[in-house]
Structure formats: C-alpha cells, structure tokens
Amino acid sequence: MIALDEQQMAARQWFEALRTRICAEFEAIEREAGSDAAFDYIAWDRADPSGEPGGGGVRGVMKGRVFEKVGVNVSTVGGTFESEFGKTIHGAGDDPRFFATGISLVAHMANPHVPAVHMNTRFLVTTKRWFGGGADLNPPLPYAEDTEAFHATLKTACDAHDPAYYPRFKAWADDYFYIPHRGVHRGVGGIFYDHLEGGFDADFAFTRAVGEAFLAIYPRIVRRRMGLPFDAEQLATQRAWRGRYAEFNLVYDRGTLFGLKTGGNVDAILMSLPPVATWD
Question: pTM of the full predicted structure?
C-alpha cells in the first residue's frame, strides 16, 4: 500500500465515493428496465519497476439490459515513470516519481438512441500537483435536446467556479476528442481540462463539481431515451460509430497510453472499448 498525504487521501476518497454513487444510480436504471444486472468488481495491484509498492485499483463492469457494457474504475497508483515517458509528463522531466488517483467511466448502451458517454477526473502529483479530467457525450443518433442539456449542466458547473472555464474547456474537448485520420469528432463534445494547479482547494472543488454535474445529467438522458424503439439500420449506425470510438481510444487517448505505460491493469484500461463494433 502506498503512503498518502492529506490531499492525496481526500482526492482518493472522493473518487471512490463518486464511483459508489454512480454505480448505484446505473443499477437503479437497470432495475427500472426490469433487469437485475449489477456491477462486478475486481481489485488489482500494480507492481512498480522500482520494487516499491505501486498501488492498484478496482475495475467495475456491468452488462445489462440498458447498459450493454459500462465500466467504472477507480485507481490510486504511485512509483517511478520510465525515463523517456516521464519526460512527457507535466513536472516529471527531472524527477520521475509520481502519484495518481482518479475515476474513469465509459458506458456503451444497448439502445442506439441512448448516447454513450465518457467521464474521467484525476489528481496527479509529480514535482507539480494538478487535477484534470472532463466528460463528453457520444451519441450514435444525436438529439439536440440531449446535447444542449449535457453542455448546459457542465457550463453551470464551470461558471460557478470561473466564467472562463466553460468556453476554454469546451474548446479543449472539441480539439482533443477528434479523430484526425477520419476528420471527425468522436461525439458532440463536453469539457476537457488538465494541469489545473491554481490551488488545491479550489481545483478540487471544481473537480467535484464536474463529477456532480455528470451524475445529475447523464442518468436523466438515459431515462429519456432508453425506451425508444430502434431498428436494424439504427443498430448498424451505432456499431459503425463504435468503431470510430475504438479507433480514438486505441490511437489517440492519453489516458490509455498513461495506463499502459505505468503498468496499470490492462483489462481496466481497455474497458473503454465497446462490446460490439463494425468496420466497413
């Protein structure tokens, strides 16, 4: 078990508590659909190359009637970056030691009218200390009402902390969640932020607000769409769109690379991949 200071412990406890609340809400949605699906939790430990304790995490996955596959993972890891990779990480160029704790969520839905979603927030420590994360909506069949509600909820969370956050972090998401080789965005956006290090208390409060905003809006969108009928053509659209999503996560996603480069649990890292996808 790695030793944690007060800030690291506070962040870890929040991410784990948020995981518990999100999973309970998703299981409640399954009950409303007449399903008894529940999350399966698997703990994992990380071995650090230094030989010191490397931490670990818990992978949570549910496959149900509404959520075809949803993963909600938490992890708290620490140790030493490999020298070359460490040079690419904020604050680790001269000192490769690091700490990271966070929550990562990806939901792929059975009904193509229900948007897939990603949410991740994290706290990292090198020679710097910062928060990062965000959330973005990924509908195979977009509805303007859902897109507007998702963005409005995130904007409200941002505006309560800094009016400059939403336009800045929305633009960052638009730039980040883009598939260059396809020339398309992977969804309808959201917010993305990193290296937020103005002050622990304020930045932690904002990161908590992002988690609360996600929990407030996404289940509402799911309930709005999960009972809609769909046909084979719409299902085919969903599966082709999932192929694009998989391409982004395997080729461009920084979180995937970070997890693989730091010896994280491979199954937990790749839980973001959809259960069924197609390519032409």
Answer: 0.94
